[in-house]
Specification:
136 residues; Rossmann fold; single chain
């Protein structure tokens, strides 16, 4: 919440994801301090369907594990991979994994449709995976 408040004070528009179909992609709704959150598909709180839609260019991506090649282990449904692939065809998207150093593994099994992270942020370091990222 302190990060969210600091970003809002710098006039950044924040958003939260919502699942639009059980095995489909995500869409993002504007997240204001006053926004109403609702129980989502997996029992997590998410932005309500009436929040205005936005297409974010910087994503903070959740994960269970990651490796030094920018591969991440997600939660098994592919929502972020499908959505990142779709959005990256339209514009530059910066995908930043957020987690703990203890979540690093030597190698994450990945397939051709899995989307790589540009950066990983842990309590110990920031790892840059994509030299061509628009955030240099």
């Amino acid at each position: 919440m302190p990060l969210a408040e600091a970003l809002r004070q710098q006039n950044h528009v924040l958003c939260l994801p919502r699942i639009i179909t059980p095995n489909g992609a995500l869409e993002f709704g504007v997240w204001l301090e006053s926004s109403h959150l609702v129980k989502g598909t997996f029992g997590t709180m998410t932005i309500s369907p009436d929040a205005p839609k936005v297409n974010p260019t910087i994503w903070l991506v959740p994960l269970l594990g990651f490796d030094r090649f920018g591969h991440r282990l997600g939660y098994g449904k592919g929502h972020y991979d499908r959505t990142l692939e779709k959005y990256r065809k339209i514009e530059d998207i910066l995908a930043i994994g957020i987690g703990f150093a203890a979540q690093e593994v030597p190698s994450v099994f990945h397939e051709t449709h899995d989307e790589r992270l540009d950066f990983m942020v842990t309590e110990k370091e920031v790892i840059k995976f994509n030299e061509n990222s628009f955030l240099r």
